[in-house]
Design goal:
The chain is of the alpha/beta class and 204 residues long. It has seven helices and five strands. It has a five-stranded parallel β-sheet, sandwiched between helices. Strand 3, helix 6 and strand 4 form a beta-alpha-beta unit. The longest helix is centred in the middle third of the chain and has 17 residues. The chain binds adenosine-5'-diphosphate and magnesium ion (MG).
């Protein structure tokens, strides 16, 4: 995004979390703020350099939506789209029975763990995570319990308008692993823009 302005403290904070994850420590950061405050843009911006680096570091990205909450594994399948086909082949395919969160979670742990063993960072982004389908939340919670000493950064955005989004984090919710929270205030890029147009009152 070329017209991205401000958010220097938040970008510095996320860069620090990225470094901690790189050093081999699971970090789970939730970015909280009202709708339209710039959560999605901030997360994308903070990862731009990473994608350009071509270092084998990988961003797996999913965006949750209220209308897709009933789609089992919807969010996890979006995350897996960021892996090469052979890395996730069959992870969600189950010929006879429906896929189970524990089995899919185990498979996700082994895929991410394999990358970690090669010293490669994996970033898992779930935008608007409170809307993630239940089975995906269970998969993520299962995986995070087992990736505590791995180079993994989770960035979850949480609209603060979703009542009890964080306080309601259950045992099945990946939000319970939040190690850091970035709270976004009202969008200061608008304030900055309006300030530049503010003229002083003329002196009489
Ligand atoms: N730092 C920023 N500089 C300029 N525009 C921004 C910035 N952050 C967000 N925006 C713009 O504000 C709008 C809402 O941002 P978005 O990231 O979608 O908010 P949220 O995810 O919190 O709902 C978008 O049009 C986006 O381009
Ligand atoms: Mg958003």
């Amino acid at each position: 995004m070329d017209d991205f302005v401000g958010r220097q403290p938040e970008l510095a904070f996320l860069a620090g979390e990225l470094e901690r994850a790189r050093a081999g420590q699971l970090r789970v950061v939730t970015v909280e703020g009202e709708q339209g405050t710039g959560k999605t843009s901030l997360v994308r911006r903070s990862l731009e350099g990473l994608r350009a680096a071509g270092s084998g570091e990988r961003v797996l990205y999913a965006s949750a939506d209220e209308v897709e909450q009933a789609v089992p594994f919807g969010v996890v399948s979006q995350l897996l789209d960021g892996l090469s086909a052979d890395a996730h082949d069959g992870l969600l395919a189950q010929p006879a029975a429906p896929a189970e969160p524990i089995r899919v979670g185990g498979a996700l742990v082994s895929v991410v763990g394999r990358r970690a063993a090669g010293g490669r960072l994996t970033v898992l982004v779930v935008d608007d995570i409170p809307w993630a389908d239940l089975s995906s939340q269970q998969v993520l919670a299962f995986a995070l319990r087992r990736l505590r000493a791995d180079p993994v950064l989770c960035l979850f955005t949480v609209p603060s308008t979703v009542a009890g989004a964080r306080s309601g984090a259950t045992n099945a919710s990946p939000l319970q692993y939040a190690s850091a929270v970035a709270k976004l205030m009202p969008p200061h890029y608008t304030r900055a823009a309006s300030q530049s147009h503010r003229m002083p009152w003329p002196r009489i």
